[in-house]
């Protein structure tokens, strides 16, 4: 008879639950979004990810158990970033440094907003709104027409969280995350999600997602280019528009009508002087590391979860991420190629000189494979060390780091699931996951611990998702 066993994962995690008592309103302007696009050097039609963070003015009203946050961007800023059609790579330290340098600019802009708009909105809400400035709000542009956050954006891994989970310290902090897409040659906002961060408890980072309305104030008609004008006329009208997350139909329209009237008449515009084109480099892109979590500071924000072993299937379109499948189980490499690989990691992947130089050849090669896997066909042709045949079972003169994985599997033979301790259960879940992804037992037993970790990460292994509930038949 079957028996269900619940495995409690004690590792720190990100929690994200729906909360019908919290509500967010996001107000911005099409002019500031147009400025972001153009000042990023992305004027025209692009299928490239790029992004900015912003300082905001947040007005909060709390009545009983229910809470409302109104968020208005006041200072937009970007930082060095390398963009591709599937990812944006950047250094978190650059974000933090730039934000810190803009404290005085943000304070002045916050004062301007309060004089033009904030104080009047407070009056409309009967004096219940309390305003404060906050940074760490995010907006990134998805390629094509992808109008939802990706699986990577929602990643709940504590050391590598998605872009919608940017905070690590604080209590009841608002977090607004938005997506834009290019509609023809013009970029427009298509989604905003609002969460409250309730701080860290026993290592867990706790978020609650509320309902959200985004209002984007239109602008005067924009002149089109000479050829574009032949198709759609001399100008394009930029009307105001609204997006809702969690609301349906006309829910929220009356309240938003009052808010937008004040916002429109204020003619407030965010500062976009710190969106700098030279910060955006179109080229190689990889994302890895963590948001405000320590460790490597190249921040993950792109691509999607990979759930199959066949990571390396040839791409069919130039602008789609290239994937490649191994014909053999080894990679032969020379010392010169390893030097080129290390140079690539240093220049394009955000690793420091110390980190790159401290890598074993095997580790450098593993990271190189990891870095280039999401490149388009066109970009893949330009990588310094061509990879025609790839696998994770790489040729190495070194032995296993430890025999824990192998010994753990052998010790579990013939035993019932209830008899496994936590470490053995972890090994079993990993082993089953690799078998499901078409690795043979022989291949698994030859892998080094570092190779196993790399494979599990690349394939999108989630211990909680894969093995939180195990059914054993007796």
Throw out a few tags for this protein.
474 residues, alpha/beta, 3-stranded mixed beta sheet, globular, disordered N terminus, disordered C terminus
**Overall pLDDT, averaged?**
74
In whole angstroms, how far apart are the ends? 6 Å
Shape: globular
Structural class: alpha/beta
Specify the number of helices. 14
Low-confidence stretches: 1-7, 284-331, 388-403, 468-474
Beta-strand level of the residues, as a percent range?
25-35%
The percent of residues in helical segments reads 25-40%
Using only CA atoms, what is the Rg?
Answer: 25 Å
Task: Describe the main β-sheet briefly.
Answer: 7 strands, mixed, barrel
List strands and helices in order, with pairings.
Elements: E1 2-6, E2 14-29, H1 30-39, E3 50-63, E4 66-77, E5 81-83, E6 88-90, H2 92-101, H3 103-124, E7 130-142, E8 173-183, E9 186-201, E10 204-217, E11 219-223, H4 226-232, E12 235-238, E13 241-245, H5 253-266, E14 271-274, E15 280-282, H6 335-348, H7 353-358, H8 361-372, H9 377-380, H10 404-412, H11 422-436, H12 441-446, H13 449-458, H14 463-467, E16 469-473
Parallel strand pairs: 2-4, 2-10, 4-14, 5-15, 7-8
Antiparallel strand pairs: 1-16, 3-4, 3-7, 5-6, 8-9, 9-10, 10-13, 11-12
Helix pairs in contact: 3-5, 6-8, 8-13, 10-11
Detailed description of the structure:
This protein is of the alpha/beta class and 474 residues long. Helices cover 30% and strands 28% of the residues. A hairpin with a 2-residue loop joins strand 9 and strand 10. Helix 3 (103-124) packs across helix 5. The longest helix has 22 residues, at 103-124. The radius of gyration is 25 Å and the shape is globular.
């Amino acid at each position: 008879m079957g028996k269900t066993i619940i495995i409690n994962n004690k590792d720190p995690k990100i929690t994200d639950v729906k909360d019908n008592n919290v509500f967010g309103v996001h107000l911005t302007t099409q002019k500031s979004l147009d400025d972001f696009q153009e000042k990023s050097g992305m004027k025209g039609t692009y299928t490239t990810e790029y992004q900015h963070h912003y300082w905001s003015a947040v007005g909060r009203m709390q009545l009983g158990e229910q809470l409302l946050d109104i968020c208005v961007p006041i200072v937009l800023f970007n930082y060095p970033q390398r963009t591709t059609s599937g990812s944006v790579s950047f250094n978190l330290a650059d974000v933090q440094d730039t934000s810190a340098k803009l404290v005085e600019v943000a304070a002045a802009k916050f004062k301007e907003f309060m004089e033009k708009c904030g104080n009047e909105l407070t009056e409309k809400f009967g004096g219940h709104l309390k305003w404060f400035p906050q940074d760490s709000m995010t907006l990134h542009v998805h390629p094509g027409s992808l109008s939802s956050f990706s699986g990577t954006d929602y990643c709940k891994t504590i050391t590598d969280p998605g872009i919608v989970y940017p905070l690590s310290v604080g209590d009841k902090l608002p977090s607004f995350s938005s997506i834009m897409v290019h509609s023809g040659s013009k970029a427009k906002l298509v989604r905003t999600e609002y969460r409250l961060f309730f701080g860290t408890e026993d290592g867990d980072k706790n978020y609650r997602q509320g309902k959200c309305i985004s209002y984007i104030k239109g602008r005067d008609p924009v002149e089109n280019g000479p050829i574009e004008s032949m198709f759609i006329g001399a100008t394009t009208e930029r009307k105001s528009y609204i997006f809702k997350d969690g609301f349906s139909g006309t829910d929220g329209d009356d309240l938003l009508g009052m808010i937008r009237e004040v916002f429109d008449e204020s003619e407030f515009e965010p500062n976009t002087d710190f969106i700098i084109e030279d910060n955006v480099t179109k080229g190689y892109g990889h994302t890895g590391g963590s948001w405000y979590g320590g460790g490597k500071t190249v921040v993950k924000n792109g691509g999607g979860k990979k759930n199959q072993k066949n990571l390396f299937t040839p791409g069919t379109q130039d602008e789609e991420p290239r994937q490649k499948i191994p014909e053999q189980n080894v990679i032969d490499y020379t010392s010169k190629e390893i030097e080129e690989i290390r140079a690539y990691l240093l220049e394009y992947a955000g690793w420091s000189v110390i980190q790159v130089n401290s890598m074993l050849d095997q580790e450098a090669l593993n990271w190189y494979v990891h870095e280039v896997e999401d490149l388009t066909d066109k970009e893949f042709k330009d990588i310094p060390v061509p990879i025609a045949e790839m696998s994770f079972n790489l040729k190495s003169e070194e032995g296993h780091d430890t025999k824990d994985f192998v010994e753990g599997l052998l010790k579990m033979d013939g035993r019932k699931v209830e008899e496994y301790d936590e470490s053995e259960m972890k090994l079993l879940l990993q082993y089953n996951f690799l078998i499901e992804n078409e690795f043979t037992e022989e291949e698994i037993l030859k892998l080094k611990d570092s190779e196993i970790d790399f494979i599990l990460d690349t394939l999108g292994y989630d211990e909680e998702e894969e093995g939180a509930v195990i059914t054993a038949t007796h």
